[in-house]
Every structure is written in C-alpha cells, then in structure tokens.
Design brief:
Largest sheet: 7 strands, antiparallel
Bound molecules: flavin-adenine dinucleotide
Number of strands: 20
Mean pLDDT: 93
Low-confidence stretches: none
Number of helices: 13
Number of domains: 2
CATH superfamily of the largest domain: FAD/NAD(P)-binding domain
CATH class of the largest domain: Alpha Beta
Shape: globular
C-alpha cells in the first residue's frame, strides 16, 4: 500500500508537489478556498500597504490565480544567504524553467539575456534577467497538465493544526470549516505545509501550541516609483527594458548592491516628465483594476489620473518602450529581521508588521544614486522624488516566516524542509526562503518543489 501524504494548501508549491508525488504516494490536498478569491481580511497590517491590493489568494492554484508568472533566478550570493548551495541547485532550476517553457522558448529567452548582459554589464551594475511567459499560468492546472497520473484527493477546509505522528499512531491534520466546525481529519504518514508565507507560520505555531508570539524573519521586495527620466533616443536602456520573443517577454532590471542589500531598477514607459502618474493612489493602476474592477471609488480615482491610465496602456501594449520618457520603478531587498514578522495573539487575527526600515531605505537610495551616475550619458533629463516620499508597496513575495521552525543546514537536504519539532512534517513555500534578493520567488519555489519531491520519493 502507498504511504499517505497530506498537503496543506493548493497554491504554487502545494499544486506542484501534489502532482509530483501522486504516483508514489496517496496524496490528499487540503485547500481552504473552494473558489479562487483574493485574501484581504485574514491578516491585518497596520504598518504598511498590504491589503490595498491583491497580495495572496485562495482556491486551487492559490496566489497563482492572480500572479504575473514573471520568472527570475536568485543569483549565487542570494542562494547562499537563503541556505541553498548554488552548485547543487542548478538542475532544479533547470526543471523549474522547463515547467514553464519549452527548450526552444527557453533558448530564445537566454539569447535575449546574453544580449542584454553584453550591452549593459560593463559598469557597477549587473542584469536581473526576468522572463514573463505570455500565457499566465494557474499552477494547479499547469502542474496537472505537466505531471498527470493517479487521483489527488482534494479536501476543502482550513487546516487548524498538525498533529504529528507519535509512537504507534500516524500524524494527521485537523481541518475546520468557515464557522469553526470540524470538517475532516486527514491521516497521513507525511505532512507538507504549503500554506504560503503568511499562512504557514500560523499553522506551524498553532500546531506547536504557540498561540501568541512573533514568527520572525519576514521579508519581501518592496517597490516604489522614484523618478521620471527622459532618455537619449538611442539609449541602450530602451532596448534592454523589454524584448519580445515569440512566447515571452524578457526584461532586464539593473541591479546595484549597497550594504549587502540589492536594489533593482526597472524602466516603465511614460508620456512625459510629470510626476502625477507615479504618485498618489492610482500609481499601480494595473494591479488595482484587476483587484477590484467594479469599485466606483477606484474608478473615480483612476479617472482623476488619466496619465497613469495612458502610461499603463503604453506599458501593457509595449508601444511605449520606443518612446523617450520612462518612469523609474525600484524593488529593494529586505533583511530578515528578528523584529519583523507575523504576530499571533490569542483570539485575534494574525498581523504583519511589514515596513521598510531606515537602513533599507538608505541602501536603496544609494543604489538609485549609482544608477543615475552610471547611466548619466543616457539620461537627458530627470525628476527624482525625495527618498522620504518614496511610497512603498508590498510586492506580495511573503517570505522567511518559517525560519524559526526549521533548521538551516546550508544545503537542500531533507533537514532544509523538515519542521524541527513536528516529526514527519516538511515546509515548502515562500515561508522557507530566508533570502530572495530582488527576485520574484516563484521560479525558486518551483525548483525547491522539485527538490523536495525527489527527497520524498526516496521515502515512498
Ligand atoms: C498580484 C500578484 C502577482 C504576483 N506575480 C508574481 C510573479 O510574477 N512572479 C512570481 O514569482 N511571483 C509572483 N507573485 C508571488 C507568488 O504568487 C507567490 O510567491 C507564490 O504564489 C507563493 O507560493 P506559495 O506556495 O508560497 O503560496 P500560495 O500560492 O499563496 O498558496 C498558498 C495556498 O495555501 C492555502 N492555505 C493557506 N493557509 C491554509 C490553511 N491553514 N488551510 C488550508 N489552506 C491554506 C491558500 O488558500 C493558498 O491556496 C505574485 C503575487 C501576487 C499577489
């Protein structure tokens, strides 16, 4: 008889792992959402913009129901910070790329990457190579198409806690419904916790009887518009900002490192040098409309900022990359701090104290100055917002919050994923990433999923 695996959460990692393990184990996935739906009201955040835009979702596929599937690797330095030995990890990145793109598509993207690097990497910066496949994938559907096989049982409900295996009895997960009623008890030999960077620490803490306290180590890569520039019409920055292949877009971000924190600069097409489109609540119009297309308040807000609407169209249609005006968008790496994370308090919703620290802001500011120095010959005009008014938004790469529950072995052995005090339980999702630089973490999480599946199969 096959051993049983219960997976908490059918998001990016839970979807992939359930399909990778379906033929070797009897797999049950517990997903709290029956339908796809953004999550705005299960985690409070009084310190920063979190719930004003889609930042997570439930339903099969989890947050990938709404993501952009922009793919980017962590560089070796960031992998080292995350406790992942870079040399051993390359084959898993390869599998992750192949999950999204065919060999021919990948080769085309790699050619664009090499051209961008040859054009840009002569000074202080390096290139962040980001690939956006044109088809936006819900990973539940993509994983099932890529890895078909035996049935996966899906149980809908909220996992309250894990009860680990004890001598003579297997482990199980307690599943509750919307009103707190018990829906199921899923028995399993192994439990994989894939509830995401804000869901997983809550499940782990409660399973360990910790109803209060901070699950520390949270980091994201906050983003802010910081300037508008007018480029020389023959600037190389235009060519690298967006290259279209037959099946994907390739974007080069320009990366600087100050005080061991990375900042990446992306250029977005603009109409002119006016700052109105990159300040105020309409500045992230694309995400806001997807989030809440029928809200009269948001529509009014957007009508009050038609420049932002026009610039979003220039970006989406790619036509604006031929123009001379650009907005400067930065994303900054965050340090996993002992004081930043998911706070649990008895009888209350979990809360996140997300914010950008003064040290982080100083690092980003220095890197932005470096960008303006390095590319001064390309920039004919610039209007820079003072750093004190950079209006950061959370970029929804909720990471690092399981750090206190797992060991840090320095390689991706089973100990990397194992929950120290819950035998037979493993974590694979954003919460396990101790560092991610400025990379969108999805590709790395898929690579980690392939790695954990390989380790699990050896225990089937
Ligand atoms: C708008 C948006 C765009 C994004 N774009 C990109 C991008 O371009 N590239 C990229 O790499 N990343 C992107 N991200 C981030 C990316 O989607 C996440 O990093 C990724 O989905 C994280 O995967 P995960 O498995 O950790 O969690 P999720 O995909 O969030 O999945 C967690 C799942 O667990 C379920 N769950 C949680 N707790 C419980 C519980 N107690 N019981 C039962 N079920 C539970 C949730 O309902 C959810 O389905 C984006 C995010 C957003 C919001």
């Amino acid at each position: 008889m096959k051993k049983r695996v219960a997976i908490v959460g059918a998001g990016l990692c839970g979807s992939l792992l359930s399909t990778l393990l379906r033929n070797d184990f009897k797999v049950t996935v517990v997903e709290q959402g029956r339908k796809k739906r953004p999550l705005f009201d299960d985690v409070d955040c009084a310190t920063g913009e979190l719930n004003t835009s889609i930042n997570r979702a439930e339903g099969l596929g989890g947050t990938t129901n709404y993501w952009h599937n922009a793919l980017i690797e962590l560089d070796d330095h960031d992998l080292g910070k995350a406790g992942i030995e870079p040399r051993g990890f390359a084959p898993y990145y390869q599998q992750a790329w192949s999950f999204f793109l065919s060999d021919a598509e990948l080769a085309e993207c790699n050619r664009a990457r090499d051209a961008n690097r040859a054009s840009l990497e002569h000074g202080a910066s390096t290139v962040a190579h980001m690939v956006l496949p044109q088809a936006r994938h819900n990973v539940w559907h993509l994983a099932n198409a890529r890895h078909p096989g035996d049935d996966i049982d899906v149980v809908y409900g909220h996992v309250e806690k894990i009860v680990p295996a004890a001598s003579g009895t297997g482990g199980h997960v307690e599943v509750k419904g919307a009103k707190g009623e018990r829906v199921a008890r899923v028995e399993a030999d192994y439990i994989l916790v894939c509830g995401g960077g804000l869901g997983t620490p809550v499940v782990l803490a409660r399973s360990l009887g910790q109803d209060s306290g901070l699950c520390a180590g949270y980091h994201d890569h906050p983003m802010a518009y910081v300037a508008k520039v007018k480029l020389r019409s023959d600037s190389r920055l235009k060519a690298v900002s967006c290259t279209a292949t037959r099946s994907a877009e390739v974007r080069a971000g320009i990366v600087y490192e100050t005080a061991d924190l990375k900042t990446v600069v992306y250029l977005r097409p603009a109409i002119d040098m006016k700052l109105g489109s990159i300040t105020g609540p309409a500045r992230y119009i694309l995400s806001d409309l997807r989030n809440d297309p029928f809200s009269p308040r948001k529509i009014l807000r957007l009508l009050g900022n038609l420049e932002a609407v026009r610039e979003a169209i220039l970006f989406k249609t790619r036509s604006g990359f031929r123009g001379d005006y650009f907005s400067v968008l930065i994303l900054g790496e965050q340090t996993p701090l002992k004081t930043r994370g998911v706070q649990l308090s008895p009888g209350q919703r979990p809360s996140l104290n997300w914010h950008v620290t003064a040290d982080e802001l100083r690092s980003y500011q220095h890197s932005v100055d470096e960008f303006f120095t390095e590319f001064a010959p390309d920039i004919l005009d610039r209007k820079v917002l003072p750093a004190t008014s950079w209006d950061f938004r959370n970029a929804a790469h909720h990471s690092g919050t399981a750090s206190q529950f797992v060991a840090a072995p320095g390689d991706t052995s089973l100990a990397f994923f194992a929950v120290t005090d819950l035998p037979g339980s493993f974590v694979c999702d954003g919460s396990i990433l101790r560092a991610a630089g400025i990379a969108n973490s999805g590709l790395t999480l898929v690579a980690l999923g392939y790695r954990l599946a390989e380790l699990m199969r050896a225990m089937a």
